[in-house]
Amino acid sequence: MELEVRHLRAICAIAETGSLTRAAAALHQTQPGLSAQLRRIETMLGGTLFERGQNGVVPTSFGEVVLARAQAVLPTLDDLMNTAAVAPRKAGAERFRLGSAPAPLLGGLISAVREVHPGADVSSRGHHTPQPLLDDVAGGRLEAVIVGDSPGYELPASPGVVLRPIVTEPVFAIVPAAHWLADREEVELADLLEQDWAVPRPEDRTPEYWARVALGVGRRMRIRYEAEGRLLVEVVRHGHAVSLVQPTFDEVPGIAVRPIVGDPIHFRHVLAWHRDGPMAATGERIACLVTQSYEEARDRSPVYRRWRESRRALSR
């Protein structure tokens, strides 16, 4: 783990509010997620930054030193990033810096931008949570991003940022291929909740949404492993846990993807761009092309295709 600007912002927010709860709200994070992030920052820096007291949290002596450096550095970094964001437009160069949270849509977004803006300089980067990406769009550091949210955890509005929904999809289960649940065409949520779980890190509010759905049926998730991407897949493949994935996830050896009976969990993909940026006039056209790209990914998935066919049959 390397120290990032968002870590400095988190340290400053905690110090300014004197509370992890209030700082998490200001940063659009969960309190457990911010607490976990703070522990990782302290481990990386090699010391405790804050002490808890009856009236909240206060910086330690070491924390005061780090905080002073962060408060000195952040204004300069903000000025540098804002200058870099404006300079290419003044020079007339068309540049698209794209971002994406984990989703099957980044490739489609790159293709769409290249089709609508031929000759543009296109680059991209990823992040495991949406809020830093939206902050970069609002600050002019990215031109467009693919992000997502869950019911009850909708993305907050950011100044000048257009949020264009692409699709809301069901969330499927991922289980070891040798597990008895893999023999089912669809799995019951109650059966999944009897298993150990692997989930993304708590800065991403998705696991909080999953846990809320579980509590809605009177159950609790047995979270044993924190992992993402390939690491999460490996934990499941080896039979240690179950988890949830987007329905366009490709089944790979050792892994089974299964719909959940009743479709109790959903995820919404969103394309975001700055209303005054280079996509001001072309955002809707690009969004339509990204939607087409998603539909192609959806049609390539045998599990997703069978799910759609079964839902159409039920609606007749």
Notes on the protein architecture:
It is a single chain. The chain is globular and about 65 Å long. The chain has a five-stranded mixed beta sheet with strand order 4-3-5-12-6, with helices on both faces. Helix 5 links the parallel strand 3 and strand 4. The chain folds into three domains: 75 residues, Orthogonal Bundle (Arc Repressor Mutant, subunit A), CATH 1.10.10; 125 residues, Periplasmic binding protein-like II (D-Maltodextrin-Binding Protein, domain 2, 3-Layer(aba) Sandwich); 93 residues, 3-Layer(aba) Sandwich (D-Maltodextrin-Binding Protein, domain 2). The chain is 45% helix and 21% strand. The chain has eleven helices and twelve strands. It starts with a helix and ends with a helix. 35% of the residues are buried.
Brief summary:
The protein has 316 residues and is an alpha/beta fold.
End-to-end C-alpha gap: 52 Å
Mean pLDDT across the residues is 88
Order of helices and strands: HHHEEHEHEHEEEHEHEHEEEHH
Amount of beta strand: 15-25%
What percent of the residues sit in helical stretches (DSSP H or I)?
A: 40-55%
What's the CATH C level of the largest domain?
Answer: Alpha Beta
- Strand order of the biggest β-sheet: 4-3-5-12-6
- Shape, principal axes of CA atoms: globular
Low-confidence stretches: 86-91
> What class do helices, strands and sheet pairing give?
alpha/beta
Tell me the CATH topology of the largest domain.
Answer: D-Maltodextrin-Binding Protein, domain 2
As a whole number of angstroms, the C-alpha radius of gyration is: 21 Å
- How many DSSP H or I helices? 11
Largest sheet: 5 strands, mixed
